[in-house]
Amino acid sequence: MTSDLPPIAGVSVPDTTLAQEATELVRDTTSPLIYDHSRRVYFFGALRGRDQGLSFDAELLYIGAMFHDLGLGERFRDSGRRFEVDGADEARRFLRSRGVPEDSVRRVWTAIALHTTPGIPEFMEPEVALVTAGVEYDVLGIGFDTVSDTDRAAIVTLHPRPDFKRRILRAFTEGISPKPETTFGNVKADVLEHYVSGFERGDFVRTILESPWSE
Q1: Does residue 196 sit in helix, strand or coil?
Q2: Does the pLDDT of residue 1 top 50, yes or no?
Q3: Quick one: which of 111, 116, 144 has its CA closest to 44?
């Protein structure tokens, strides 16, 4: 099934109860910034999958895209866990409460948990790979010219990105600065290093050398 919304850049949003409920949840519990970004991630991820000839479950890709930044929300800021895991766990609860098969739940959880871990998702199931591809396109501009100007404009017209670069960096900072230890070994340490005074990023070499093991 496809939604009443006409296809955007040839991509349709799944018109299922699951997708509709995910849309409502994310729209009602996050900012317009995160909502629009999440929808763009779905469109750009789906375009990448289509262009690469991948067979993927559009509904699972949509759920992964919509939940991928949910963990940046205020209610997760004292969780002590990576925001990606918070979002992945929320998606898992959402899917399990609706009787979704465990293999599908696993794919969505993995897609969200790994979306800021480059170099791994691309070798996994299409839904996992394409959530990361959509994020990398919308946030980092990776593969920018692989989407036509016309298709890109259609997606951004539906889900605009005013001052997106600065606003998403602010959202990252606000979401992870209360738990800076969760940035050890991942790209979000760069965010705190730029925007949080006094932040010291974890050092893998120093951690090894200062471990309690005697030599």
Answers
A1: coil
A2: no
A3: 144
